[in-house]
Write a structure and sequence with these properties.
By secondary structure, this protein is mostly helical. It has one domain (16-139, 152-184). It has helices spanning 6-29, 34-55, 76-92, 95-123, 127-133, 155-160, 164-184. α1 (6-29) packs antiparallel against α4 (95-123) and α3 (76-92) packs antiparallel against α4. The radius of gyration is 18 Å and the shape is globular.
Length: 187
């Protein structure tokens, strides 16, 4: 097992506060219109669904989750977050936001994913075999991987992980974008 780099440790610690700072910058720079807001739903809703679905399967730090969406991508929560974020970038109608968002994911989330994988590799001996079969982020449409057993989606896990907060956050961002459209008169 390799040691975590200093940046991986920093990235893990700053990812949530950086996200809140980015959200404030996003709202300031965003120039939404009704059509871009409508288009954004095509990424935001699937992202919210994927995060919620994944939260109902994962049992963080207790077991290696390989069923449900984890049979197709090792990081469905991050993939869902990316869909949501880029959906809102589309709503914002700003190339600056898109570029900053891409940089944020490369500089913060990629090292965080690698750091988490190092932990999983050390905590769960079967992780290496799983990682060879399942892509890190972009899912395979078809998978040969068959789970030996699957408990299925567990609503209590979804609630324990408080994944409903992602939906409430998305509603708050949509409300702010709608207010900005009405206030600035963008059509």
């Amino acid at each position: 097992m390799s040691e975590r780099t200093r940046w991986q440790t920093v990235a893990r610690r700053i990812r949530v506060p950086t996200g809140f700072c980015f959200a404030a910058l996003f709202l300031w720079l965003a120039r939404p219109t009704w059509p871009t807001l409508a288009t954004s739903v095509l990424l935001v809703l699937p992202g919210l669904w994927l995060r919620g679905y994944a939260a109902g399967y994962v049992n963080k730090s207790v077991e290696l989750t390989v069923t449900g969406p984890y049979a197709y991508t090792r990081n469905p929560l991050y993939l869902g977050s990316m869909l949501i974020a880029f959906g809102f970038a589309a709503a914002a109608r700003s190339i600056v936001i898109f570029a900053l968002l891409a940089a944020l994911f490369l500089l913060i989330y990629l090292p965080t994913i690698r750091s988490e994988e190092e932990f999983l590799r050390g905590a769960f001996p079967e992780f290496s075999a799983y990682a060879e079969q399942v892509p890190r982020l972009l899912p395979r449409v078809r998978t040969e991987r068959r789970a030996a057993r699957s408990a299925g989606f567990d609503r209590s896990r979804y609630l324990r992980h408080r994944e409903y907060n992602a939906g409430m956050g998305a509603l708050a961002i949509y409300a702010a974008l709608i207010a900005k459209i009405l206030w600035l008169g963008h059509r």
